[in-house]
Amino acid sequence: MRTGSRHKLYMRCSAGVIGLLATMGAPAARAQADPAAEDQPGAVAEIIVTAQKREESAQKVPISIQAIGGAQLQQMGIANTNDLPLAIPGLQISSSAANQIYYLRGVGSQQVGTSSSPEVATFVDGVYMPFASAALAGFSNISSVEVDKGPQGTLFGRNATGGVIQITTKDPEYDFGGEASLGYGSYDHLVGSLYMTAGLSDRVAASIALLADDQMNGFGKSQATGEDVFKRSIYSVRTKWLFELSDATQFRFGASFDRVKGDAGGAIRPAKGVKLWNLATNTQQEIPDFYDTNQNTNSFHTVEAFSVSGTLDSDFDWAELRSITAYQGNRNSTYVDFDGGPETLLPVYVLTKEYAFTQELQLSSPSESPLVWTVGAFFLKQRGHTTPFQFGSPFATVALPFGIPLGDTYELYAKATTTSISGYGQATATILPDTRLTLGLRYTHDRKTIDGYGQISGPVAPAPLIIPPTVGNQKKSFGKPTWRIALDHDFAPNVKAYVSYNRGFQSGGFNSNNATGYTVQANPPLDPEIIDAYEVGLKSELFDRKLRFNVAGFWYDYKNLQQQIYVNGQLRTLNAGAARIKGVDFELVYQPDSHLVIGLVGEVLDAKFTDYANAPGYTYPQGFGVGPLVPTPIPNAKGNYLLFAPKYTGTLYVNHTLETGIGKFTTSANAAYNDGYYADPGNLYKEPHFVVVNVSEEWAPDEQFSVQFWVKNLFDEKYDQSVTAVGTVGFVGNTVGAPREIGVTARFKF
After folding, report:
1. Cis bond upstream, residue 459 (ω within 30)
2. Taking a C-beta distance cutoff of 8 angstroms, is the pair 678, 640 a contact?
3. What is the distance between the alpha carbons of residues 265 and 644, in angstroms, rounded to a whole number?
4. Which H helix or E strand runs over 7?
């Protein structure tokens, strides 16, 4: 555990480094600058967002939003979606094997499986991304990342009780151009990217983006095998085509293929401050180095995902029509040495294949209409296959279900489908001078099915043997209306206040990886989540737009939370009764001139269960962190904090530009603070607080070439990005925060 004095020292050092760097180097564009900003040197750049399905200034939208431009992502050292919590307070990421799960303002769930839907939805160029195992994405041709906080249950193509992450890639251009970059850092980390765009005719333009991000050495090693652990590679190719069919109609075609390989999320090592229990020897495992494991076979996952999409935009003067069609596929192969020790006790292997087809239609009025409205419909067909979920080998401490002989393997096979259809509409009217009322309504109908069985597979069993009590086939439909009511008023040209009430809905479903089978008795359907969100906010730009101050207070009533946790050694998703979440988001940006930007974004959060009867819990009978972790049900977890909901998070950043006779020097520094989070409903384990500081210095002798020297995690802070309570093994830090990395990146624009 870190002492209080060390924490204070780190905070002082962080503030000192940022203060020093503030006198040196350049602001990266947080968004597109409008002409008005260009007329006011030093004005804070305008942020263009699409939270209401149309391009608007973020300061005009009555929603709490944080958006970051592609240039600032580079400056802050945000290389992929895994790094986003360092820039977005209130956003947490929990990894479960290859699956990346987002929590926003305490809303989220670790549930994974071929029938699950994330509480925080991700969209890329307007296309809904349904697969948690394909959520890790590298940033190479990104225009912006926008995070819309709170339930977005009206306009978006899939309900999201926690919020929406929108990733926008660059549109093709007719003039030939692009950018190439090559970077090298600690741990033999090589990153190369190439982006090219050109016009193929007077009405057709295309682009291609390539990314190779390969960390060849791990952060640590397995004590049992000596092999590297905690390493990852990301390979991606994306293409985008623009067809101008007429002056009023455009068609964009996009295609991508991504391959991610690594062991983050599946490596079994003790969370910070505790030890793992060796089930074979009934002793505490000694793993002195923070990044080491003691697994005799290294965990791994390989995810391959593709996406093909087409977006048609047509302007009819009185309205704009948009059609978004997409087909996606995902293959996830995962192996985990689940006991975490040097013996072979419980290896787990999972192979899943998922496919999804989506179609969305939107019809929107012009933004300048007296009544601004959008109506639309969304369709999703998603199917997934688990072939198989496999575990088992000699396991002397905990027996496998159904009396399976020790030495045999237990396998689950399952097929899950989701069919979703919804219709929605939203309108904003000016009801008084400078006062607007927004009303939105949506109805969603989901139908989910699960079909599966369990079987015994050799070597003891002579042939695969299906276990009759596990065989099941279920169907269930879920339908709910959701809505949005918002009132906003302009007190001055650059000062807006708003209040809103949003209802969010997450349909129920089934445990697709349930070890006890797929019957109604063994695998009853989950109830839908319902969230009522109340928010009041202020958005302002003061002193000739040199200072931006935004603040939002929110209160959530959250019912039937879908929470995934290990119960008696089995991974299960259960409904928690209810929770209350309240907090404050704030953003403060100061730009005294065109050379300097100082920003502070943060969140104060209080997220607690108000009802969770018979909640899964754990105890250490011999004292905290000593001996085996014993499952101990909690009569009611009322009053306990939600998982992955830190009380305080914040990011302070400074960017400065210095023009010299030998070129432009850009200095950037950012410090992200996290107060720590609980990893179980019983609040037995809390990750200690941590501070991560990234710094960089970029030299650009001209407009085409630049060299950036960077340090990530300057103070080599050791922290767990994700912690899971794994049966009697203990609290597992299955994804570690990256240690200090030093590197250089060269970029060439053409």
Report:
1. yes
2. yes
3. 15
4. helix 4-21
C-alpha–C-alpha distance, residues 130 and 665, integer Å: 41
Please report, for the domain that includes residue 716, its CATH number: 2.40.170.20
Give the tens place of pLDDT for each residue, 544-589.
Answer: 999 999 999 999 999 999 887 666 556 677 888 899 999 999 999 9
Q: What is the pLDDT of residue 157?
A: 61
- In angstroms, rounded to a whole number, what is the distance separating the alpha carbons of residues 89 and 66? 9
- What gap in Å lies between CA 572 and CA 522, rounded to an integer? 11
Q: Identify the CA nearest to 112 among candidates 127, 128, 130.
A: 130
Distance CA 650, CA 670 (A): 10
Cross-strand partners of 690: 674
Q: Using the Cα atoms of residue 430, residue 432, residue 435 and residue 440 in order, give the sign of their dihedral.
A: negative
Contact 194, 236 (CB under 8 A): no
Q: Where are the alpha helices (DSSP H) in 44-130?
A: 70-75
Q: Which residues contact 497 (CB under 8 A, 6 or more apart)?
A: 488, 489, 491, 536, 537, 538, 539
Q: Which are the contacts of 464, defined by CB distance < 8 A and separation ≥ 6?
A: 411, 455, 456, 457, 458
Q: What is the pLDDT of residues 327-350, one digit of tens each?
A: 999 999 999 888 888 988 878 889
Closest CA to 112 of 96, 94, 127, 126: 96
Judge contact between 643 and 672, C-beta under 8 A: no
Give 730's strand partners.
726
Give me the half-sphere count of Cα atoms (radius 13 Å) on the Cβ side of residue 458. 3
Q: What angle do CA 58, 444, 385 make, to 5 degrees?
A: 105
Any idea what the Cα angle at residue 151 is, between residues 421 and 575, rounded to 5°? Answer: 80
**DSSP-H helix ranges across 188-331:** none
Instruction: Name the burial class of residue 175, with classes exposed (0-12), middle (13-18) and buried (19+) by CB atoms within 10 angstroms of its CB.
Output: exposed
Q: How many domains does the chain have?
A: 1
Residue 119's closest CA among 86, 154, 150, 83? 150
Instruction: Identify the burial level of 610 via C-beta atoms within 10 angstroms of its C-beta, where 0-12 means exposed, 13-18 middle and 19 or more buried.
Output: middle
**Phi, psi dihedrals of residue 423, rounded to the nearest 5°:** -130, 145
Strand partners, 421: 379, 445
Displacement of CA 94 from its chain's centroid (Å): 8
Q: What is the pLDDT of residues 370-421, one digit of tens each?
A: 999 999 999 999 999 998 888 776 554 455 677 777 777 888 999 999 999 9
The token pair that represents 553 in the structure block: 């207070």
pLDDT tens for residues 214-264? 999 999 999 999 999 999 999 999 999 999 999 999 999 999 999 999 987
For 504, the token pair is: 């969010």
> From the DSSP assignment, how many helices (H) and strands (E) are in the chain?
3, 41
Cβ(285)–Cβ(348) under 8 Å? no
Tokens linked to 710 = 């960077």
| Token pair 């002193």: residue | 543
Pick from 9, 6, 63, 113: nearest CA to 564: 113
Q: For 12, phi and psi rounded to 5 degrees?
A: -70, -40
Q: What are phi and psi of 13, to 5 degrees?
A: -65, -45
Residue 362's nearest CA partner among 323, 313, 332, 401 is 323
- Its domain, for residue 518, covers 4-749
Distance CA 277, CA 273 (A): 14
Sign of dihedral through CA atoms 102, 77, 229, 675?
A: negative
Which residue, among 512, 503, 560, 509, has the nearest Cα to 534 in the 3D structure? 503
> Of residues 417 and 94, which shows the higher confidence score?
417
Closest-CA residue to 451 (of 469, 472, 470): 472
